[in-house]
Design goal:
single chain; 132 residues; alpha/beta; Oxidized Rhodanese, domain 1; 5 strands
Length: 132
């Protein structure tokens, strides 16, 4: 943990290496969208990303991460989501401390995710899948 915290310099935060936009995450080749919201929040607003076949969507509440760590692949890029980036930040630090290296916080909360998943963008994704 000391090494992780010492790496979080001004430059680290300035270049934004800890964050990824929803659009960039949806463009990745093989990724995990890790939703760390509570089960109640996920039941209210489900995020499945079904039309993005290169993205696996998994919901594990932040408080369940220690017991469910084996469900998270170390060989995939991981974008961690929660609405205010508080729990995703905690999960980010936790996963780094457990040896995960390809981890980023999905920035912007619901607003940014909704923008990335507007009807026109989903339509383009569906059409792209048909052309493959």
């Amino acid at each position: 943990m000391d090494k992780i915290l010492k790496s979080m310099t001004l430059k680290f935060f300035a270049v934004g290496g800890h964050k990824i936009s929803p659009e960039k995450l949806l463009e990745t080749e093989k990724s995990l969208f890790l939703d760390v919201r509570s089960n109640e929040e996920a039941a209210a607003i489900s995020i499945k990303l079904q039309h993005h076949p290169r993205i696996v969507s998994k919901q594990i509440p932040v408080d369940e991460l220690p017991d469910r760590l084996d469900e998270i692949p170390k060989d995939m890029f991981i974008g961690i989501f929660c609405p205010a980036n508080v729990r995703s930040t905690m999960a980010y630090i936790y996963l780094l401390s457990k040896g995960f290296t390809q981890v980023r916080i999905v920035e912007g909360g619901y607003a940014a995710l909704t923008e990335a998943l507007k009807p026109g963008k989903i339509w383009k994704q569906i059409q792209a899948q048909k052309n493959v």
